[in-house]
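Marked as duplicate of an earlier ticket. Keeping the data here for the record.
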Amino acid sequence: MNGKLKYMYVRTKENFMATKRITIELLTDQYELLRKQASSTRTTVTGFIRKIIDDFRLRLPVEARKNYQNDPLYKMRGSFDGPKDLAENHDHYLYGRSSK
């Protein structure tokens, strides 16, 4: 390791949370902004994005943070068959209101 290791993250049962890997496409300037901000806060781009999401979640109303598991969309996770116009009229099928 030639003496350059500064930090090492060890995942234990106490700090383990399930994760989901995603791939996103960003414009070059968007990525550079993230990279520079992450570097200035001494974290990775991934860590910086997680912090942005956590900060956003804290600004949500308390009810939205508590009740997401009651949302019909959350309950429908996974693959399933549906009407041919599901993508266009999803609000109608999920919440009984128009998507338009």
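See parent ticket for discussion. Residues 45-59 form the longest helix (15 residues).
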